[in-house]
Amino acid sequence: PGTQLPFDPSKKTVVVLGSGWGSTSFIKNLDMSEYNVIVVSPRNFFLFTPLLPSVAVGTIDSKSILTPIRYVTRHKPRQVVVIEADAKSVDPVAKTVTLADETEVQGAVSTTTINYDYLVYAVGAETQTFGIPGVKEHACFMKEIQDAETMRRRFMDCVESAGFPGQSPEEIDRLLHMVVVGGGPTGVEVSGEIHDFLEDDLKSWYPELAEHIKITLVEALPSVLPMFSKSLIEYTESTFKESKIDVLTKTMVKEVKPKSVVLQMPDKSIKEVPVGMVVWAGGNKPRDISVDLMKKMSEAQTNRRGISVDECLRMQGTDGSIFALGDCTASSYAPTAQVAAQQGAYLARAFGQMAHRDRITAELAAAQTAGDNEQAQTLQKQLSRYDRLRPFHYSHQGSLAYIGSDRAIADIMFFNFTIASSGVATYLFWRSAYISTLFSLRNRVLVANDWLKTRIFGRDLARD
Ligand code: FAD
Ligand code: NAD
User: Fold this and answer.
1) Ligand 2 within 6 A of 265 CB?
2) Residue 316 DSSP one-character state
């Protein structure tokens, strides 16, 4: 197998799966002159996930947080091949990846198989539903850009239907009950954003409906945001109380129906609650392609949370040709953008070192063949410096989350201490931190413009 792609036979071929935080950071930092690089992803853009909940209520336009992946690869000294396709399977023995282009314009699915010398595997994760009935069918997710757009449409549908003449009070209350499942950062941020939309816009445009809107955040654990400091958890819970966001902890969603959710309450009783919209933010699970790949080396890959890697991100059970990073891996690090981006940058440096090592190895072989012992000895010494990869080291910069009402929370690392900070000043810090980590100047301008536009004109209510 193998497709005809621009190719320098003297270089090794690196296939990168994904265009998310891990892979984009890898591509951005890699010295492309050393490798043939092929990037494969079903979406041809990078998505800045931290601002996704803001897109879901129209504070920010969806295009403002997307960066076409070709913008990242175009300034590279060598051409990078970008293929918009789903990787369907990896063969770690033949060192091939099978891809499928499933876009509608094709009419039929096209598949092809490409070879790799190294595979950088960063396909992320998908949303965990625990097989709970009705979640996939009736809930909105908050993972991809389409999810945020779907949620916005669904939310506006609920509001407009509630305004339809002759609706009963019970039906209005049902349509305007928004339930967010999962008290991790995603669920908390979505709840905060829905609250802002209500306060800033819906109260003036739909005054007769606004007071019927109810937001409930459901969390199975005893508290929301377990990864944040205790004081910040308390601050979030009290801000939500003020904002009239109901937080139901120790409560588990058992089923999502078209017009209701079934809850198991802390006393184990079952309660069915009418809802207009359910947003599911229940955490991560590995994608099917990752599960399939792990099964191919089942002795080394036993962690059900994801792919096990060594300290240099090499997938356990392989010959060192597959590197995995980000949310598709199971490690001691949280599945965050911060970790994935640092791993991508680390791996790019490691690939630079590997290219150096390969070059010295080739020169050494040539010197030995030519019988140049002095040169061979010098090269041997140099080789020993490049032979072992330095392990990945994660440097935690802190955690930040927006909780609505122009307030944010932050656990900021200061040397070895964590400083907990919250409130309006932290919100300004949140904004400046995110604007500065946005991928390009273009994205920064677009997001800043969206914030200004929302402040002056309010959010767009058109249901597109
Ligand atoms: P992703 O960024 O998910 O990228 C995976 C890539 O693989 C995507 O391009 C996808 O299209 C592609 N892909 C999928 N299937 C295939 C396939 N079969 N073949 C090829 N490619 C494939 N983290 C933080 O640190 N701070 C935050 O503020 C923050 N906010 C978040 C807000 C939300 C709403 C969400 C959902 C997450 C947030 N995160 C945050 C977590 C962060 O987004 C993830 O940890 C990060 O995206 C992981 O990077 P990744 O590269 O592993 O995966
Ligand atoms: P998460 O895994 O952090 O939280 C999911 C929550 O859903 C859990 O607390 C779980 O107990 C709850 N849950 C699952 N099933 C449930 C059910 N049936 N009923 C009630 N509750 C249920 O997921 P997340 O919030 O999507 O975050 C995923 C990762 O992305 C995390 O590592 C997080 O740190 C990161 N992230 C970070 C930020 C940020 O830093 N601002 C924002 C979003 C996501």
Assistant:
1) no
2) T
Query: Which has the closest alpha carbon to 82: 73, 90, 91?
Result: 73
pLDDT digits (tens, 9 = 90+) for 348-370: 999 999 999 999 999 999 999 99
CA distance 382 to 77: 27
Measured in Å, residue 173 CA sits from the centre of ligand 2 at: 27
- Domain(s) of CATH 3.50.50.100: residues in the chain: 12-127+285-386, 135-282+396-457
Nearest to 83 by CA among 95, 105, 103, 99: 99
Q: Cα–Cα distance between 194 and 70 in angstroms, integer?
A: 33
Contact yes or no for 119/323 (Cβ under 8 A): yes
CB contact burial 109-142 (16+ within 10 A = b; e otherwise): eeeeebbbebbbbbbbbbbbbeebebbeebbbbb
Architecture of domain 135-282+396-457: 3-Layer(bba) Sandwich (3.50)
Nearest ligand 1 atom to the CA of 328 is 52
Its CATH architecture, for the domain 12-127+285-386, is 3-Layer(bba) Sandwich (3.50)
Contact by Cβ (8 Å): 283, 184: yes
pLDDT, position 167: 95
30-39, 104-113, 304-313, range with the lowest pLDDT: 104-113
Mean pLDDT value across residues 119-136: 98
- Burial, 57: exposed, middle or buried (Cβ in 10 Å; 0-12, 13-18, 19+)? buried
Token pair 């799966």 is found at 17
Establish whether residue 185 lines the binding site of ligand 2, counting it when its CB lies within 6 angstroms of any ligand atom: yes
pLDDT band at 72 (very low <50, low <70, confident <90, very high): confident
Q: Which two tokens stand for residue 287?
A: 């994608």
Q: How far is the CA of 338 from the centre of ligand 1 (A)?
A: 11
Buried b (16+ CB within 10 A) or exposed e, 62-83: bebbbbbbeebbeeeeeebbbb
∠ CA(126), CA(132), CA(133), 5° rounding? 115
**Amino acid at the residue 146:** Q
Cα 212 from chain centre: 33
* Ligand 1 nearest-atom number relative to CA 329: 52
Residues in CB range of 259: below 8 A, 6 or more apart: 174, 274, 275
CA–CA distance, 280 with 179 (Å, rounded to integer): 9
